[in-house]
What does this fold into?
Amino acid sequence: MKTKSLFLVALMLLIGGTTMAQDYAFRVLTAKGNNTASKNAIRVGSKLNNSDVIVMEEGGYLGLLHTNGQTVELRTKGTYKVNELASNLKASNGSSLTARYANYVVSELTTSAEEASGDNRYKHMQKTGAVKRAGLKKITILQESKVKMLGDKMEIEWFVYEDLANINPKDVREYRVVLTDLRNKELYSEVTKETSYVIDFSRPELKDQTTILYRVEVADEDKKNINSDNQVIAKEKEDAAKKEIREQLDQIGDDTALGHLIKAQYLEETGYYAEAAMAYKAAISLAPDVETYKILYDSFTERATMSEKAIIEHNKTKNPATNE
It folds into this structure.
């Protein structure tokens, strides 16, 4: 993809080097704590040989990628022989796609660590400007104006833009999510105290729908006419291309934090940004103490313009006259 060409060049160089010389067993994708391999500190991007012995400290964490594309997570204090970790893998579960997107994670993190530090980390990454939106509204949706989705569930998120709404977001007690068909006939609505909501197409009201409209409005009786624009969610029709994407998604990662991270990378590259965000957050929820997952998610929302800060900054860049 054009928007990620710089990333892919770096990725292919990394993969090329990996393919030419498989002189190691595992590559470290994520790490937490002062863990060692044969007395050497383990960092993101480290290579582990079959002869290495890993010593995990209390509270440590490691996410490892084997050369055959399989992943391993270590969470428990103790000593691990790398050759035993490798021998316990099932040969049939290897995936070149997993290796590809897992190495992309390494490429992002190791490049960032080398080029920046402190608050400036990860600022070198190119912004894709991937998400198309109409601009800031009283309630602004983080997802793009029209979302295409592979699965049955889609999490939407939003924020109250105080400059337009003229209220303090902290004073909002409840929001109402309203879902309609394309003729604007209400399918159902639901009230929530959160600033996010999961739309589930398997619900009886939605199971026969392929495309819906939704909006978010403040439900408080004393705060009227504070709402978002109508947004669109469309379920992708099954065709050869979509079938291939679904099959590839099933091949990569697994139901671990590391697995969801790899799926997130794949979904981002294939253009399913809302579902990529869900995969990043699934990784964070499974390993909440591992900073790597939060770093990668924040980087994603910045380059895809899917965070409150990124959306406001993007709007000011497009409309300089609004800058104070």
In short: The CA atoms of residues 139 and 228 lie 5 Å apart. The radius of gyration is 22 Å.
